[in-house]
Amino acid sequence: MTSPTQALSVAGVSIWLDDLSRSRISSGNLADLVATRDVTGVTTNPTIFQGAIGNASDDSYREALSRLAAEGADADAAIFALTTADVRDAADVFRPVYDATRGVDGRVSIEVSPDLAHDTAATVTEAKRLWKAVDRPNTLIKIPATKAGLPAITEVIAAGISVNVTLIFSLERYAEVIDAYLAGLERAHSGDFDLASIHSVASFFVSRVDTEVDKRLAAIGTPEALALKGKAGIANARLAYELYEQKFAGKRARDLVAVGANVQRPLWASTGVKDPALPDTLYVTELVAPGTVNTMPEKTLDATFDHAVVTGDTITGGYAAAHGVFDALTRAGVDFADVTQVLEDEGVDKFIASWHDLQNTVATALDKAHR
């Protein structure tokens, strides 16, 4: 019998795990998820590493922290060493997937420091430093889709580095992300890089959109507004896929693909359902289309494997209905441009807070190791 995760793979959806820790790698759990849950990649972020390294019940980082303390490393140097080592080891776990898919999957993402989200030059420098330190071709460097992040994406792609663009909420920003990717490919081609070796995904956030929009709909309180709850996130993602199809069917993208470039795949992020009134696999089963990635927290992955009903493509036939949802949101009084700006600002702020928590956790651990 075909499992739901196998059915997703057949439908053209790559399943990535939105989590990583040293113990997950060393215990064999990550390799087991590849074998039994059809997982073909991993995404990380500052919150994930804070949870892993700051987990008091997990001593898998203790030896490394003691060594780093003996070497005199400060918190930032220790974080860099620990996280790049984890990503390197995870990339090695996924290397067979990377080879079997000719570089499309088997990818592990690591994010530049969120403190740099509004600094283009520093983001570029950090991306290149991470790429060199991990030293695995199946790495993706995560860069946020802030205004300062857009030129950094172009610069990093132009240097032949594969990129995961994160924190995308609006179609307008997504269009700019695609343009930044294509501009980077054009520069890479001029620089004689092998375009086939450069990959990218564009991480479009889903559940956070519903959380913010539904809060506003509840405040409006009309029957028409309340009937729209739980619909904005999926509609927004479906329209992102429509935009993806349009942009990569254009001459600029086709010319690049003709000389070896890869399309930038849409990735559905923030797919854990936060509203208990909604089905726990909603952001999986309703966002199935060829050439997409769905990165899931383990709880969502387990729910998907256990009881998701995968019926094939649930995106491309829904464009008209998705446009209708946004027309109705406008009539109800939801300012979606404001929604997406709030979400971008909050997303950066949350990752900065997690990063600072991680710095404090590691600084405390280093100090304790000195004693």
Q: What secondary-structure arrangement, pairings included, does this model have?
A:
Elements: H1 4-10, E1 13-17, H2 22-26, H3 29-37, E2 39-42, H4 46-53, H5 62-70, H6 75-93, H7 95-100, E3 107-111, H8 120-134, E4 139-144, H9 149-158, E5 163-168, H10 171-190, E6 200-205, H11 207-220, H12 223-226, H13 232-248, H14 251-258, E7 265-269, H15 282-285, E8 292-296, H16 298-307, H17 319-332, H18 336-370
Parallel strand pairs: 1-2, 1-8, 2-3, 3-4, 4-5, 5-6, 6-7, 7-8
Helix pairs in contact: 4-18, 5-18, 6-18, 8-9, 9-10, 10-13, 11-13, 11-18, 13-17
Explained architecture:
The protein has 371 residues and is α/β, with parallel strands linked by helices. It is 58% helix and 11% strand. It has 18 helices and 8 strands. The termini are far apart. The mean pLDDT is 96.
Features:
371 residues, alpha/beta, 58% helix, 11% strand, globular
Uncertain spans, ≥5 residues at pLDDT below 50? none
Average pLDDT across residues? 96
Number of strands: 8
- Read across the widest sheet, the strand sequence of neighbours is 1-2-3-4-5-6-7-8
Percent of residues in beta strands: 5-15%
* Helix content range: 55-70%
Instruction: Return Rg in Å.
Output: 20 Å
The ordered H/E elements are: HEHHEHHHHEHEHEHEHHHHEHEHHH
Structural class: alpha/beta
